[in-house]
Automatic annotation (TrEMBL):
Pfam short name (any one): Glyco_hydro_2_N
Lineage, top ranks: Bacteria, Pseudomonadati, Bacteroidota, Sphingobacteriia, Sphingobacteriales
Gene Ontology molecular function: any one: hydrolase activity, hydrolyzing O-glycosyl compounds
Domain Glycosyl hydrolases family 2 sugar binding: 107-200
Protein name, UniProt field: Beta-galactosidase
Signal peptide per UniProt: none
Ranges for domain Glycoside hydrolase family 2 immunoglobulin-like beta-sandwich: 211-310
Amino acid sequence: MSMIFFRCVCFLRTLGAQRTATIVRAVKVFCGLFLIAHIGCVYGQSRKTIDFNDGWRFKLADELQFRRPDFSDQTWQPVVLPHDWSILSDFGADFPAGNAGGALPGGTGWYRKTFHIAETDKGRNVRIDFGGAYRYTEVWINGHYLGKHSNGYLSFGYDLTPYLRYGERENAIAVRVDNSQQPNSRWYSGSGIYRDVQLTFTDHVHMEKDETFVTTPVATEEKGTIRVRTTLRNPREERVSLQLRVFDRDGRVVAEKTASVKGIHIDETIDVLRPALWDVASPNLYRLELLVQSAKGAEIDRLAYKIGFRTIHFDVNGGFSLNGKHLKILGVCLHHDLGALGAAFNKSAAKRQLLIMKDMGANAIRTAHNPPATELLDLCDELGLLVYNEAYDMWQKRKTKFDYHLDFKEHHIADLQAFIKRDRNHPSVILWSIGNEIREQFDSTGIALTREMAAVVKQLDDTRPVTAALTETNYDKNFIAQAKALDVLGFNYKYEDYDKLPKEFAGVPLIASETTSGLQTRDVYDPLHDTIQFWPASSKDKFVTNGNPDFTVSAYDNVAAYWGTSHERAWLEVKKRDFLGGIFVWTGFDYLGEPVPYPFPARSSYYGIVDLAGFPKDVYYMYQSEWTDKDVLHVLPHWNWSTGDTVDVWAYYNKAEDVELFLNGKSLGKARKTDERLHAEWKVPFEAGELKVVKYRNGRPVQETVRRTAGQAAKLQAKVAYERFRTGDPRDLYFITVELVDEAGIPVVGQDMELTFTTEGPCEVVGTDNGYQADLTGLTSSNRKTYKGKALAVVRKKENAGKGVLRVKSTLGETKIELPQL
Ligand code: GAL
């Protein structure tokens, strides 16, 4: 050996210093590689998660041979996930989901994908995770059956390791999604693999992601403590080390610790001094990184979590507090579709919805009535929105013929566990709801089921209250409340009963888990009635009997479903009661399905504060004036009427004693809100021209807004929104609003026209909409008629190279819109 060493030194001397250095470097690299390879033999590489959404093929048909690995799917349609096949159709009266389900088709479809796994990944664990597929989903890998999943709103996954082929040999995955038996959901569900799919590679030894529970038992301005509980899968004999590192938002390490671990259970804490707390105004997040290393320092596994230090508390008298400070929950219920995208999840589309809500002043959302995409919770963590996270819309007793009641008995415990484990590490989640308007609240079976499910939740997460959204306001008849297992009780509607609730349900904190159900079509104004109109009027009618022939509902806040009330009334009733922790308005956005008060062709809901396309209805500004500190002044309606009309003019405003209305420069008097009315109002004989509202604070004019009578439509005005909704996801979208305006740029509402959207460059139109609830053109069409002068196009950039262009054609000519680089 020493002889070899001596010869080498002599040889190097003959080469000179520079070459010697090069050779020494090469030897070092070689040794390094050898070491890594050697360690690799022992532990493989650390965790790697890859996007598995590209390269699928789809067929809307059902044959068992599709599961076979050697089946040729070359004629199938190439698709990129997330994918919702229902949304691709035009609306129709005869689909089995009915208009309550969105008047779109279901069926059974198959997805297939072939892929390779490198030889070097041999020995590693590989699992596939589906964010969600609707509905019954069965998966085969290389012909092996992996299982069937029945809850269309929950995530699920399988270990692929035992069945994989490596290197040149191809793997084939086949997924059958059966959404043929309908109706099976309230409301539109979508069909197919409608959320993200990922492949995760880990070492044989790894942390169980679902078993990892990260809490913040101390969250004060002086100190934050993070507690991590997790399980190590397949540990070897020797000890391993767990490194915990906490990074602040600038990427600086603010706390660090290494612990020695033996066995499978890990339970560690780490402190952060003077943490910036997470709240709705400043959603400060830290990043906790968990790194498992072998005794020799080789990386075995790595996981990261977003941490928000915050405390939550519900009080019987005082409502909700966040970080020890009272905070009224200002929430909206959101259903899971994303308008023109249907159920196909897209992070930028979800961010758009959440930011529109946040701009309105909402600080919370209720995921009504199902577990959301986990990316939605990521967004709520980042944006500072509290989440009321809901598991079920029914238990054993059905709401629709083929819904989850069929699977409840067999799966409800495991599904609930999977739901809690999946979502419990999100700081935004503040409440677990085990159900919405569950029928078992009316009979004694509700007691045992409530106890059983509350216990399941508590066992997996003792840091958040468990609740349910109830309708029965008499304790004696409410068996869910009688179980005495819930920490917070939610009540839907029935504001007339609010004052009796603290006595009936003594000792339990309360919230208004669902309110309002006002009905509106954007920019439609019918003459006002003195009292609120209920459409339909009572439980005797399925539909409104004296509705509008064009299936619209007036956007003055004075029409509601008979079980609901106006937006103003509902908010006023919650606002004045401190014992109610907050409000969840039904709903933030219109959604597909449940088009009360009309039959088909109505196919999407009228309940939203914002329409399906994302355009706010007027009442949006009522909330903004009440829920934010921004200077708000909004006047309705538009100013295009006929001579002789007397028009009701309303103004929403805040931070002022009163507002004054001017028509063509002439004052029509000052008006103000009252304790029982959250808008100012006037009756105005129409005269074409300019309607102006001026807002006065301390007697001084501080803000004004105008509506002008429009001339003939002369051009299309387009606005591209994307920057604020970017998420970094390669599938981020552009949202283009097109508005008809006259020569002077005044919006034209009475001259709707067909638009045709085409693209150039690496982009495509993925959806169009106008917010009209009875428009029957499918939402993925490139043709869309404006509604009240507006339409939306949603465009996806296919790749990030080159410029994308969107062209909009109408009888007014063509408008070219350059899409900014992502
Ligand atoms: C509630 C129900 C919601 C929705 C709403 C419409 O009772 O929880 O799912 O149907 O009514 O007003």
